[in-house]
Amino acid sequence: MQGPKYLAVREHLRRRVSALPEHTLLPPEPVLCAEYGVSRITLRRAVDGLVADGHLVREQGRGTYVTRPPIRHEYRESFVHRIAGFNSVMTEQGAQVGTAVLTQRIVPVQPPIAAELGLETATDVIELVRLRSVDGTPNHVAHSFMAASAYPRAAEEDFSEGSLYDFLRREYSADLAHARIVVDVGTAAPDEAEVLGVIAGSPLLVVRTTVRDSAGRPQVHSYSRLRPDVSQVEFEVSVGGR
To answer: Which residues are registered as beta bridge partners of 208?
Structure first.
């Protein structure tokens, strides 16, 4: 119960404080507990998340008051004129992108990924998991998968810098022509919460991308799990090749 309840309270509080002037004091804890019908532990957990995200500040002897989080960075991948990944697009905009490779290995493909890549089950794929940051702030965890037989050197390449898509073009002349993007919502598992600097169970944006070649064959499937407090997703749509 506590997980869903505190998340609901936190989201309602987030919308509430976003409409208040900066430095506005929140009502005392007993008042908020009565208003939301929750225990003090549940309320404090909800407020803790907003403090961590930069929406609220606690001050000894004063209480909890409204502040403003830092400007959010847009999560951008351009698929209109070219397939360009997060690293390339953000670097071109002047942001400092950091990458830590968390997992890089060859594994048998799992059924959901096999379906996205059009592979038989138990086919080997390269799994690449990276923590991406923007100007020093953890932004998202990116999971990428591709057939090991098609791109074997991707299992050993150093992806702590640079773009996966650029590597595939450079080393394999990969034909990355089309992309399908699906956005939904998830919650942070404990290991994700630790590297992203959020509380376990916090909501995350989930962006799933399958990149295909000119003939429609899947080449790369990725899903990125983003902190919504420091990210927003932007889509640009081109009609008629313009």
So the answer is: 182, 223
Fold adopted by 5-66: Arc Repressor Mutant, subunit A (1.10.10)
pTM as predicted: 0.66
Task: Show Cβ contacts of residue 194 under 8 Å, excluding neighbours closer than 6 positions.
Answer: none
**How far lies 80's CA from each of 22, 33, 69, 178, in Å?**
39, 48, 31, 9
Domain ranges of the chain: 5-66, 86-226
Give the burial class of 209: count Cβ atoms within 10 A of its Cβ; 0-12 exposed, 13-18 middle, 19 or more buried: buried
How far is Cα 190 from Cα 202, in angstroms, rounded to an integer? Answer: 10
pLDDT in tens, 71-113: 455 555 555 445 556 666 566 666 677 899 999 999 999 999 9
Give the span between the Cα atoms of 156 and 106, in whole angstroms. 10
| Superfamily for the 86-226 domain | Chorismate lyase-like (3.40.1410.10)
Q: In what order do the strands lie in the sheet with 218-226?
A: 97-108, 124-134, 137-147, 218-226, 203-212, 178-187
Q: Using CA atoms, how far apart are residues 240 and 47, in angstroms rounded to an integer?
A: 48
CA distance 225 to 230: 12
